[in-house]
Structures are given as structure tokens and as C-alpha cells.
Amino acid sequence: MISYADACRVINDSRGDAVGITTMTQTKYWNQLSGEPDLDVSVNNAMSKASSVALGVALGDSERKVLCLDSDGSLLMNLGSLATIAGMAPENLYHFVFNNGIYAITGGQPVPAPGVEYTKVALGCGYKSAHRFEDIESLDTALPSILESPGPVLIEIIVKGEPALAGGVDQTWESNARLPIQLRALRARLTGNDNWGPGGYYL
Amino acid sequence: MINGVLHPKSVVAQLVQQGVTHYVTLPDSETANMYEALIAEPSIKIVPVAREGEAIPVAVGLFVAGQNPVISIQNAGLFEAGDALRGLALGIGFPLVMFIGYRGHNRHGDTPDSAATFLEPYLHMWRVDYYIVESDDDLDRVPLAFDLAKKSNLPVAVAIGTEYAEPEPATQGAAR
Q1: What is the ipTM of this complex?
Q2: What is the domain extent for residue B24?
Q3: Of the candidates B49, B93, B154, which has its C-beta nearest A84's C-beta?
Q4: DSSP-assigned beta bridge partners for residue A93
Q5: A97 touches chain B (CB under 8 A)
Q6: The domain A4-191: what is its CATH number?
């Protein structure tokens, strides 16, 4: 098994100027490592939708790589997105699935089917390739070449679950306002236009 | 009394006028004929989704990347997409025009289809403004929806209250 911290470190090492769309536990580690916060969006306030947001970014800016740091519980809620992604076939989308078999945020309850092999599901849907890693050395060695191969690619990482003991979800006004702020920063970075004004529930 | 019909080409022309780049959709019975008309329009890319809840987040990603998407889903699908509407449209202030197939709408109030019964109360509950389009005569409401979305930084719905007309035969114009 791989730790979240190690997996995020290895991914970040090969990131370049890719967009990083994250969700759930890995967000915490990614944010600690990322040197490109304007290219990061944490889709924590809309569980399961990271893969769909990542698809939109990948289609909208086909010249830039998009890394989606998804998780098994989230992907199970939006499993159809694998077919949608495969159908659009964005060559610049790399879909990581942190598989811990549990809902960590809520204390560690098992997901409905902890044995799902996401690589097989992704290939069955039509992803260009899929890879599964259970040790950090293999991930570290293989990832640079994987990120040079055409997407959509699914990279399943078997991680050691870190169930939250209490207060697993950061729920403040500021924590929820992070998503619209990050989306505006990313849009400004990708388009060069800082013209998305305030609006909505948090801004 | 509704005069005329709603032609998909007329709506596509509105989308082109608004600079729409992507049409994120799960086809439904009300808007099925739009699909064929859109395929013929090279400036708009169709993004088919497997479930309606994906449509808003895909559109968010496109918008963030500098594109100008709309979504088109059925009323029943909008109900399924409720959390995406909350978290990734209303929550972030996303100026998105959502074309919603008004399945069951019969313009007389009563309908045996609960998908129609609940659509407008549902939009009211989310405080989403909307326009109803039932024929080509109503198409001036489409730019109003785009203007309101931009002005408010909020999603605005265009409820398609009738089935789109069949695409016109290619020879029809030539015969006149």
C-alpha cells in the first residue's frame, strides 16, 4: 500500500504546469506540496464531480495536461463519467483514483464494493490505457512515461486509508468559499482574463 | 394558444449568436431534434454525458478553460443534477444557461407527468430564474436568459415547453 503523502509527492514531481483537480483526502496532501496553487481546484463541495470538472477543463484547454486526483468512493458516485470521458477521449486527461476501499472522511465505512478494479472498468469504457500501483517505487518509476502517453489514462493507486476520527470535513464559510475562489484563479491563469466577478452563495 | 412551432435551427442560430462553444447534453424527447441540427453547426461542439449530474460540472470545467458552454437536459435529469446545481452552479456563481426539456408540459396546468408538475416549483426552490420557450415566437427570451446569467453570475434556465419540430427537408427551401 502507498501513503497519500508519497503518492501526492510522486505525482507532483512529474506535474509540470498541469492543472490539478482534486477531491477528498488527497486534497490536503496535494495542497501542502503544490507549487502551482493557481492551477489547483479542490472539488470537495461537490463530491464525485472532480472527474467531470477535469473533463471540462481538458476539453476546453487541449494544450494543457489535466491531472484529476479522484478517489474510489467519489468515483463510484459518478461512475458514468468514465464512459463520458472515454467517449470524448481527451488526450490530455490523466485520471488518478486513490483507492482505499473506505469512506475516509466519514470515519472509514467500507464502500459498497471495495474490490472494484477501476483499471478494468476504465478500459472497458474505452480509456486509452490504465495502470494499477500498490507500491510507491513502481509508481515513481512508471509515472513520467505514463504522463507522456496519450489520454485518457486511469492510474489506480492503492492507498492506506486514513479514516477521520472526528471532524473530517472542514466546514466553515471560508472553506466553502475556497472552491469559487480557486475556480476564478484557474480561469484567470488559463485565459489571462480576470473577468469572472463575484456571485453565487459564497462570494 | 401557441402559434407556430419551435425549430431546432432557430435555437441553434440563437446559440451561435451568443457565441456558444459547447453543448453539454443528455438528449431527451423534447430536445431530440436539436441533436441533428447541432451536428450541422461546426462552431458548436456536442459533449454527450452519461448522466445529467455530469452536465453542470463538465460545463464548469469548460468555462474555467475559457469556453462558453450551455447544457441541455430534461426536467427529470435536472432533479437528478440537484447537488451539482447547488455546489457547482449556485454555489460558485456560474453564469450558465441551462436548456431544460419541460417533459409533460401541456400549458393547461394539470398534467399526469410529475416531471412537469415539479419543474417550476423546483426552480423556484433553488431560486433559479427561468424563461419558457414554446415556439419560435418566444426566441427573444433566449438572449434575455444569456444576459441575465452574465449580469447575475448565476445559472438561468430556458424551459423548452414543446418538442422541437422535425428538421426541415433539404429540398423545402429550394422548391420555393
Answers
A1: 0.96
A2: 1-70+81-104+119-133
A3: B49
A4: A66
A5: no
A6: 3.40.50.970
